[in-house]
Every structure is written in structure tokens, then in C-alpha cells.
Write a structure and sequence with these properties.
Layout (H helix, E strand, L loop, with lengths): L2 H4 L6 H22 L3 H18 L7 H15 L3 H33 L2 H16 L6 H13 L4 H10 L17
Helix pairs in contact: 3-4, 3-5, 3-6, 3-7, 4-5, 4-6, 6-7, 6-8, 7-8
């Protein structure tokens, strides 16, 4: 198998036409994103990045977490589903590549762009993304607590929202019977 075929670039006419159509679709969506007002685009980008920050806190992002992030970007960011999918994928990639370096600066930017209500809504979304696989790990919960501090919110804000998701907290769940000690 050629390297081009492994990367998804087949030389057959049908695959070339399909790849070109896919690229055209992506170009159209990216072009639409370019037409968003700058403040709104910045808000959505920082929102998606912080969602991916929490999803990746346990060093993996599940399909459930990705789907949850996409839905939240549609709901909270006001983007069509196709655009949300691209924004989430870009945020995930950026987080994988630069997460450790950019986490604080991106959260600081979101802090400047958002109201208290938007910050609290983000925290609720962070718990929702973490709970999408039915278990909020201690690492994810700690990451949300760190973000709470970076946003300048009170510890009680974190505690109140964490309580809403207590049924999903891994630390409060009984050990799985198939786990060996």
C-alpha cells in the first residue's frame, strides 16, 4: 500500500473527485467562519478550546466527549453543525499540540470576553463534556477546578456545579467488580 493511499489520497478518479468535493466543502465552511464577527469568533474558539482542554485532561478524548463538544458549540456558539464540527476538531488539535502552553492564555482570553453568566455556563458545559462518558475522572474534575480559578470564579461556584454532576463523579462510584486490586 502506498503512503498516499494510507493517508487517504488514492489516485483513482473517483477518490480524487470525492477528495476535491470534501476540500470544497471544508473551504466553504472555513470561509463562513471567516465571516463571523471577530469577537464572536474569538469567543467560540476559546470556548471550544477550553472544552477540549477538559476532555483531554485524562489524555484521551472519547467520541462521546467530541459529540458533546460539538453539540455545545452549536448551542452556546450559535454555529451550524458543520462549522461546529470543524471548530471542535481544530480546538482538539490545538489542544493536543499546544495545550500545556496555551491553556492559561486561552482561559485568560475567555475571561476577558465573557460575563459571569457565560463563565458559569462554560463550567456547566465542562462538567457536561466530562460526564458524557458517564464518569467524571478526578483529573477532569481537578482541571475544571483549575479553570474555575483562572476565570476568577469562586470555589463555591465550582462546588455548586460539581454537586449537580455528583452521580457522574468517578470518585463517588463503587469500584467496578471486574477491577482487580
Amino acid at each position: 500500500m502506498s503512503i498516499l493511499k494510507m493517508l487517504g489520497f488514492d489516485s483513482s478518479g473517483t477518490d480524487r473527485a470525492r477528495n476535491e468535493a470534501d476540500r470544497d466543502t471544508v473551504r466553504k465552511i472555513v470561509n463562513e467562519l471567516d465571516h463571523l464577527p471577530a469577537d464572536h469568533a474569538r469567543f467560540v474558539a476559546t470556548f471550544a478550546f477550553i472544552l477540549s482542554r477538559v476532555a483531554h485532561a485524562d489524555l484521551q478524548i472519547s467520541e462521546d466527549e467530541t459529540g458533546s463538544m460539538e453539540r455545545l458549540v452549536v448551542e452556546k456558539g450559535g454555529l451550524p453543525e458543520e462549522q461546529a464540527m470543524i471548530v471542535v476538531q481544530m480546538a482538539k488539535t490545538q489542544n493536543l499540540l499546544f495545550g500545556g502552553t496555551d491553556n492559561f492564555s486561552v482561559t485568560k482570553e475567555f475571561k476577558k470576553l465573557s460575563t459571569r453568566e457565560q463563565k458559569l455556563a462554560l463550567l456547566r458545559c465542562l462538567f457536561a463534556v466530562s460526564a458524557s462518558d458517564d464518569s467524571i475522572s478526578t483529573v477532569e474534575s481537578n482541571e475544571i477546578r483549575q479553570i474555575t480559578e483562572e476565570l476568577g470564579l469562586d470555589r463555591s461556584d465550582f462546588t455548586d456545579l460539581r454537586t449537580e454532576f455528583r452521580d457522574h463523579l468517578a470518585v463517588l462510584k463503587p469500584p467496578s467488580p471486574d477491577k482487580k486490586d
